[in-house]
Each structure stands twice: as structure tokens, then as C-alpha cells.
């Protein structure tokens, strides 16, 4: 373990690098989590999440910038006196944009939270969206008009206990419109992707529709946010569609996990669909133990990188999980990262890297300075 000094702040970190790979543990003396990471145009990485070690309030948005080797360049926090979470980050031509939710600002309860920064992470503006109760945004896309589309869940609007929430803004974050989707029970959307016709594809979970306890929930909207179709996938037990990503031929890959179709506990669940929601194929990846994949991304070889976590009840431990498939969704290899007795590690968002590898972020208790630290892992292309 080594100490990284930034001004008057001490940031604890650990490095467990292999050749051409790296594993970084970054954080302070309390709990710090990574939620979303993406490569930057200079070859480095930008990750967003949640910190209790630094910032102004109970929890703050946590933005971490590294170089190509995962070495910390800087970090920033955003928020107020209450709870503020970062769940998505994208690079823009002049900086970064972050999405999540806040209890420090807004109309009431939690509100969706959008923050624009310059290239050094200095805030330029922020906006909130929502009503008197709770509105959370989990995913974001950059739109072709320079604006932003945010997706999440709402109890302030809609017709059910909880509905999917889609917000469209202009380039300055001013709200253009919002839409809600769902039934009488709880429905959430976690991820958004752009469709070739200018509309949006949303992925999440529904208790209102489907065959079981909860089902994977996929929706297609027009460019103006009007619902064109919705479909559910799963069986009699629990099934979740946690992320959606587009493919070059105009199809979409949904990543999640299934109990209904699993051989043991939970298994990774992949659904490839076209823009009309017609299934091209589904895959349930049976591996040793209980495994959840939360997000996926198209790799440069046409296959898919998936990230999540593996449960080992006999060890009372979780390991961060990285999975690679071929272009048809068949398992190439998988890797447990930071598996130790009683350790708790999780991989949340994975993104492909230009060199054929993948990078993911999450959190870990292993070699951490506090109760949890942000985890950043890079794996080169090919089997590790």
C-alpha cells in the first residue's frame, strides 16, 4: 500500500498489477465505490461513483481521473450536505458530464442530478430533475443534438408504485421533456442506448409484467420519448436486464442475470435483440458458483466483455467477476478478481478498450484503506 498526496488530502491506494494489466484500489478512510468507467481520448480512464471519505455531505459524487496505467491524476467530489451519487460519466469535447441522483438539491426526496465539468473536473453547471418524492437516474446517453438522455426510476410521476423515468435535456441541461413507463407495481430502468432511428432503447426490470417475480424489461421509444413497444424476458423466478449496448449492425445486447434459467443460484443472462425487440439469441452462462453480470460492452473482436460479481457463501466472500464471450455470446473465459476469504469485491460497469481489452470499476474491501475502496481493473485482450 502507498499513500497518494493531493494537496492537503491523503488518498490511499494499492496496486496489484500484472504484465499489461492493472488492478487499482483507490479511496480514503471510509466507504468509496466505483460505478461507471470509460476510456478517455488521451488513453486514460475516467470513473464516477460515490464517496463517504471526501466531500461535503453524507455521500458525495466521486470523480476519479487516471492515466493509461491506472495511476491517479486527480479526483473531485460534488454534492451538498445530504446524499449525492454518481452513476454515469461520459467525455464531451470540452470536458465531462456526470449523471446520478441527489438528496442535497432539487424538488424533494431524491432527484436526478446532472453535472457538467471542464476537462479538469471543475464544475461548470448542474441541474436536477424530478418531483416531490424520489427520482433517481442510473444511466445516461449523449444525444445527436448535443444534449443528454437520462434514465432511471420515479415515484413522483407515473401510474405505479415506481415507474421507469426518461428525461431529455438540451446541451445546457435544460429539460426538454420527460416520460414515464410501467404498470401498477415497481418498474425500474437502469440503462439506455441510442437506436439508429433516433429513438431510445431502455433496459431494466419489472414487477408489473412478465412471467415471474420480476422480469427483464426492455422498452423502445421514439426520438420524442413516446413508447413504441415493451417486452419482458424471464421465467417464474427473478430475472434482471441491467444494461443495454448497441452493436454495429443495429442490434442490441442486454446484460443481466437470471434465477429462473440458472443451473445454480444466479447465472449471467445475455439477450440479443433487434430494434423491434425480436430475439436473435439468448445465452445463460453456467459457471462455477453463483454469478451475476451487471453490465456488458462490445469488445473490439466482436465478442462481449461482462462485469459483475461471484458469490462464495462457504468463504463468506464475493469476488469481482469479469467474463469474455465470443460474438455469439458463448463463454470464452471468466476471471474472479480479488477473491479472498471474507473479502467483498464487485465489478459494476465494464467498457471495451481500443487495444482489444476491457476496463471495469466497482468496489472492494481487499487491501482497502477504509471499509470500501473504488476498484479499477484493466485486462488486455486475450485470455488472462
Total number of helical segments? 0
Poorly predicted segments: 1-13
Q: Please tell me the CATH architecture by its name.
A: 7 Propeller
Q: Major beta sheet, specifics? A: 6 strands, antiparallel
Give the rounded overall mean pLDDT.
93
At the fourth CATH level, what is the homologous superfamily? YVTN repeat-like/Quinoprotein amine dehydrogenase
If strands are numbered along the chain, what order do they take across the biggest sheet?
1-2-3-30-29-28
Detailed description of the structure:
- By secondary structure, the chain is mainly beta.
- Helices cover 0% and strands 58% of the residues.
- The strands form seven sheets. It has a six-stranded antiparallel β-sheet, with no helix packed on it. Strands 4-5-6-7 form a four-stranded antiparallel β-sheet, with no helix packed on it.
- The radius of gyration is 19 Å and the shape is globular.
- The two termini are 24 Å apart.
- Mean pLDDT is 93; it is low at 1-13.
